[in-house]
Amino acid sequence: MSTKPKVLLAMHRNLGEQIFRREDFEFFKTFVDVNEISSLPEKVDEAFIRDNIKGVDICISCWGTPPFTKEVLDNADRLKLIAHSAGSVKPIVTDYVWEKGVRVTSAAPAIAVAVAEMTLGLMIIALKRVFQFNELTHRGFWKLEEEIVKSRSLYNVTVGIVSASHVGRNVIRLLKNFQVEILLYDPYVSLEEAERLGVKLVSLEELMARSDVVSLHAPSIPETYHMINRENIKLLKPGAILINTARGSLIDESALIERLARGDIFVCLDVTDPEPPEINSPLRILPNVILTPHIAGGNSITDRWRQGRYIIEQIYKFITQGTMDYEVTKEMLPRIA
Question: Nearest-CA neighbor of 316 among 137, 145, 109, 83?
Answer without folding.
Answer: 83
